[in-house]
Design a protein that fits this description.
Length: 217
């Protein structure tokens, strides 16, 4: 009788497992829960927070994408503007992994189909650089750009996990190595002052010359 019940009990057990998430039954050596699909970012909240970038400046930050789950997954990145468009449309972003360039171009043209495969218990260290183009002039001083870089992981069972980090780039009131010429310059005043000083010196020389001539007579 017991032998007849064994296949039935085994079938009942397998059927019951289907009603529970797999990660409920996965645990680490310390008793902590191990998820089937688990992506983590470091840092996860703020990646860039720069208030004084100038034309010609750039900044590089490293963000780590970790696969702490029991399954491999594919992930890709999306970038979304969350502030004013003027500076956002001009800033340049570069994304590299192990000196391999994944993307280089404007923030506003960032391609969302940059897919990477990440095995379980491994990580990617992405070097992300934001560049303030040198040709941007006075019109972009005092502006600010904010954006969110979102990472989306997807496993074989089509389960999706999302996480993201934000960036804030502000421009200062002066530029490095490049500045549009000011319309109200002091150059004319300096030239006028130099001319007056030159004429005054010449007049003094003439006066001294005539004084010497009178004394010689």
């Amino acid at each position: 009788m017991i032998k007849l019940l064994r296949p039935f009990l085994l079938l009942l057990l397998v059927s019951g497992l289907g009603f529970f998430p797999l990660h409920v039954f996965a645990a680490g050596n310390d008793g902590s829960e191990i998820k089937v699909l688990d992506m983590r970012l470091s840092p996860k909240d703020t990646l860039f927070n720069i208030a004084n970038m100038k034309p010609g400046d750039w900044a590089t930050r490293t963000i780590t994408v970790e696969n702490n789950g029991v399954r491999d997954f594919d992930y890709h990145m999306q970038l979304r503007n969350t502030g004013e468009k003027k500076l956002f449309n001009e800033l340049v972003i570069e994304v590299k992994v192990d000196n391999q360039e994944l993307y280089q171009g404007k923030l506003s043209e960032f391609q969302s189909k940059l897919t990477r495969k990440l095995k379980s218990a491994s990580d990617d260290q992405l070097a992300i650089t934001i560049r303030f183009p040198e040709h941007l002039g006075n019109d972009f001083q005092g502006l600010e750009s904010s954006f969110v870089l979102t990472f989306i992981a997807e496993g074989k069972d089509s389960k999706i996990v999302e996480d993201g980090a934000q960036g804030i780039i502000g421009s200062s009131g002066s530029s490095a190595g490049f500045r549009l010429p000011a319309t109200s310059t002091n150059l004319f005043n300096l030239l006028l002052l130099g001319s007056v000083l030159s004429i005054s010196g010449f007049v003094l020389l003439l006066i001294n010359f005539y004084k010497r001539m009178k004394l010689a007579q």
